[in-house]
């Protein structure tokens, strides 16, 4: 605890110095937790902005992800935070807005480039005020090993039945793990499993909003069927998948020992590093369903410090983040993270391009536990991790899993208590 | 010069005496108050408050404790963690301490060659970071690349292998045994020191009286080291009920599968700091921390008033 406090204090102190340097007009400091991407910001994104805006000097100052929330809060409360604030999705940023640290961005001209789904993560519960510009999303789907598909003469499955038939063929051959995913870390089961295939069942935004409005329940057939579909994966997961952690899964697929990997688009760059011959297909809808839905989850946004010294320039910068130019740079600098604007971007990485092409074919939605529903106790996201892993482990029936989530939600969420 | 000082010390007047006392006591008092007493009291005070929407703290009396013990949402995880914690403790008491005792007894035999080497090797894991221990054992036990599977197969015991860390009935046992492996050096070294402190005359007298090694151990040495074993037990109790790190490293904050490896430390961590989308709840976290403190306090009182008094009779 003490260590964290000290760290926060040191960071706050650093912030004071940074502020002293940036207080003059024409200078902006970006607060961010993406220290992994610091080089990309400094070498590609900021130079591109400064080329068209030579009078504004932008500094990217990241904080380690674990400390970000605490350090940012301390800086904002101490009045030492930078002008531009990178926004976590949903409640963490909403809390900052409610405290008056972030400001409404409804009047940014480029805000029109974003759909309501894209803005949902940084919009007040009543849908009226957006306080961060949506910046990046991650998309779920499946990555497969092209060599293995060729060797076993398999094709990309289009429906759930084909998907299971493909897995069966790989299993019969016996040489490769058909589906790479583990349940030990629990979030893999929930995020790469349940949230990956679920939108096809609950019709994306319809279902997600239905749960929030209280018109749908987790015990409805669409959710139970999602768990049922998930349960069918169990025979195709690798030996000892119950003790397989996320890095194990990445290695298993990265080393070419697995055929299909339940993926988030951020995995692309990992596998690029391991030279896996990759292809990708979207979560296959149940047979006979014409519409398809994908999990296109809003993950990162960017807003402005309400008490920042340089509001005018900050708005110019944020408006540029909403532009086509930024969307194209961002998509190509970070394959697997997609800009959220409606701009048609061309991604040079072919697998990343496949993922983003689904936006044109299917309807996008975000993970259903992220908005509002994980505010209470018991926490719905934690519960989803737990029951999804248990369903895959065969320790819980799909019906019981759905019932547990519904019971938990009913305990504290008024619209579900009717 | 030295004589001079001594005279002054003895002939010190009252106020000078208090000044010297304060000088020597102050560092300890200040440090303990700042880093031990104050956080403890602050935690207990925190547990009496509740954070309202909007961030204001309001006094809630024992309301948090009432919620923790009676509301299903809280009481189920709490009692689950409590049960698991007791199991965690029992495994340490039944495995770690007897093995520690046996190792100490062996090491204290003068006939044993390479005693110092064994002692160092067995004590080594205790000094390693829990993160390393957790990582190494996860690799050893991994069903994908672990050597444990090959080891069991080589012994024709392959059927005993399973994804231990992902199985509800065995995950906690596995982690407990890893913890035993790491910390067995502590009871060993404490008991070993106690055994060395036994005067040779007693052992010689026993030998002269015709007792063999075995009898000497049970009838002469063991009664003399009961106080140390009591101390080891109480240290184990405190350490186990404060445990958190190994489970967090090996199973994550949700202490899976299905919370079967959740102990009070992990429950506290999740509650206080939050997890993924779970917002942290410092006041409820403090309530759990206070309960942990009370449980450990009760355990210590039982030890001090019931056990230690009895074993004192055997010591020198």
Query: What's the tally of helices of chain A?
Result: 17
- The order of strands across the largest sheet of chain B is 1-2
Count of separate DSSP helical elements of chain B: 14
Helical content band of chain B:
over 70%
Distance between the termini of chain A: 42 Å
Quaternary structure: heterodimer
N-to-C SSE series of chain A? Answer: HEHEHEHHEHHEHHHHEHEEHHEHEHH
| C-alpha termini separation of chain B | 41 Å
Structural class of chain A: alpha/beta
The major β-sheet of chain A equals: 10 strands, mixed
**Helix fraction bin of chain A:** 40-55%
Strand-residue proportion of chain B: under 5%
- Which chain pair shows the most residues in contact? A-B, 41 and 32 residues
Give descriptors for this structure.
heterodimer, A: 418 residues, alpha/beta, 10-stranded mixed beta sheet, 17 helices, 47% helix, globular, disordered N terminus, B: 316 residues, mainly alpha, two-stranded antiparallel sheet, 2 strands, 73% helix
Précis, in short:
The complex is a heterodimer of chains A (418) and B (316). Chain A has 418 residues and is an alpha/beta fold.
In words, what does this structure look like?
The complex is a heterodimer of chains A (418) and B (316). Helix content of chain A is 47%, strand content 15%. With 418 residues, chain A is an alpha/beta fold. In chain A, strands 1, 2, 3, 4, 5, 6, 7, 8, 9 and 10 form a 10-stranded mixed β-sheet that branches. In chain A, strand 1, helix 2 (38-52) and strand 2 (57-62) form a beta-alpha-beta unit. Helix content of chain B is 73%, strand content 2%. Chain B has helices at residues 2-10, 14-46, 63-70, 72-107, 115-127, 130-141, 147-154, 171-183, 185-196, 200-208, 213-241, 245-251, 264-273, 282-312; strands at 49-51, 57-59. Chain B has a two-stranded antiparallel sheet with strand order 1-2. In chain B, a hairpin with a 5-residue loop joins strand 1 (49-51) and strand 2. The two termini of chain B are 41 Å apart. The A-B interface holds A 1-2, 90-91, 99, 182-187, 238-245, 248, 251-252, 369-370, 374-375, 377-382, 385-386, 389-390, 393, 395-396, 408, 411 and B 35, 39, 55, 73-74, 138, 141-145, 162-168, 251-252, 254, 256-259, 270, 275-279, 281.
């Amino acid at each position: 605890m003490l260590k964290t406090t000290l760290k926060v204090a040191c960071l706050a102190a650093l912030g004071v110095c940074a502020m002293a340097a940036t207080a003059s007009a024409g200078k902006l400091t970006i607060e961010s937790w993406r220290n992994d991407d610091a080089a990309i910001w400094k070498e590609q994104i900021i130079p591109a902005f400064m080329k068209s805006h030579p009078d504004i000097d932008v500094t990217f100052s990241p904080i380690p992800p674990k400390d970000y929330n605490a350090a940012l809060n301390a800086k904002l409360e101490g009045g030492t935070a930078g002008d531009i604030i990178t926004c976590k999705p949903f409640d963490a940023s909403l809390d900052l807005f409610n405290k008056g640290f972030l400001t409404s961005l409804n009047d940014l001209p480029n805000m029109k480039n974003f759909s309501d789904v894209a803005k949902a993560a940084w919009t007040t519960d009543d849908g009226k005020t957006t306080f961060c510009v949506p910046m990046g999303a991650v998309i779920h789907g499946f990555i497969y090993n092209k060599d293995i598909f060729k060797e076993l003469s398999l094709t990309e499955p289009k429906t759930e039945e084909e998907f299971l038939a493909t897995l069966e063929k790989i299993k019969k051959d016996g040489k490769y793990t058909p589906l790479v995913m583990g349940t030990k870390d629990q979030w893999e089961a929930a995020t790469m499993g349940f949230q990956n295939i679920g939108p096809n069942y609950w019709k994306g935004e319809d279902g997600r909003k239905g749960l929030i409005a209280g018109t749908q329940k987790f015990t409805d057939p669409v959710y139970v069927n999602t768990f049922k579909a998930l349960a069918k994966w169990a025979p195709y997961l690798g030996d000892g998948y119950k003790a397989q952690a996320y890095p194990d899964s990445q290695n298993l697929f990265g080393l070419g020992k697995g055929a299909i990997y339940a993926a988030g688009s951020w995995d692309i760059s990992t596998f690029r590093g391991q030279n896996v011959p990759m292809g990708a297909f979207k979560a296959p809808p149940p047979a006979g369903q014409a519409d398809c839905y994908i999990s296109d989850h809003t993950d990162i946004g960017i807003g402005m410090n309400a008490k920042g010294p340089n509001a005018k320039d900050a708005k110019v910068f944020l408006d540029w983040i909403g532009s086509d130019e930024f969307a194209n740079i961002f998509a190509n600098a970070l394959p697997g993270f997609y800009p959220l604007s409606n701009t048609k971007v061309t991604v040079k990485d072919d697998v990343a391009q496949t993922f983003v092409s689904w936006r044109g074919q299917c309807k996008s939605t975000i993970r259903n536990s992220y908005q509002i529903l994980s505010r209470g106790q018991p926490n719905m996201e934690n519960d989803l991790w737990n029951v999804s892993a248990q369903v895959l482990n065969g320790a819980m029936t799909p019906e019981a899993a759905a019932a547990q989530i519904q019971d938990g939600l009913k305990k504290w969420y008024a619209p579900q208590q009717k | 010069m030295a004589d001079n000082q001594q005279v002054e010390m003895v002939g010190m007047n009252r106020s000078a005496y208090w000044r010297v006392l304060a000088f020597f006591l102050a560092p300890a008092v200040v440090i303990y108050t700042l880093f031990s007493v104050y956080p403890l009291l602050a935690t207990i005070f925190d547990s009496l408050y509740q954070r309202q929407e909007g961030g204001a703290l309001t006094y809630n009396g024992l309301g948090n404790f009432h919620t923790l013990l009676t509301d299903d949402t809280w009481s189920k995880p709490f009692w689950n963690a409590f049960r698991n914690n007791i199991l965690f403790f029992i495994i340490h008491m039944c495995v770690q301490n007897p093995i520690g005792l046996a190792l100490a007894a062996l090491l204290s035999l003068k006939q044993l060659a390479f005693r110092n080497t064994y002692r160092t090797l067995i004590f080594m894991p205790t000094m390693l970071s829990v993160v390393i221990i957790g990582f190494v054992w996860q690799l050893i036990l991994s069903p994908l690349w672990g050597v444990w599977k090959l080891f069991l197969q080589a012994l024709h015991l392959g059927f005993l292998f399973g994804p231990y860390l992902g199985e509800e009935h065995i995950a906690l046992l596995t982690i407990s045994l890893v913890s035993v492996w790491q910390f067995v050096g502590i009871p060993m070294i404490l008991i070993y020191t106690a055994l060395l402190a036994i005067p040779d005359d007693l052992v010689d007298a026993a030998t002269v009286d015709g007792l063999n090694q075995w009898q000497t151990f049970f009838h002469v040495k063991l009664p003399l080291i009961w106080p140390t074993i009591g101390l080891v037990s109480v240290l184990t109790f405190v350490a186990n009920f404060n445990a958190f790190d190994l489970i967090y490293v090996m199973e994550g904050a949700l202490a899976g599968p299905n919370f079967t490896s959740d102990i009070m430390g992990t429950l506290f961590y999740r509650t206080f700091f939050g997890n993924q989308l779970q917002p942290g709840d410092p006041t409820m976290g403090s309530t759990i921390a206070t309960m942990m403190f009370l449980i450990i306090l009760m355990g210590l009182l039982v030890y001090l008033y019931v056990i230690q008094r009895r074993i004192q009779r055997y010591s020198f």
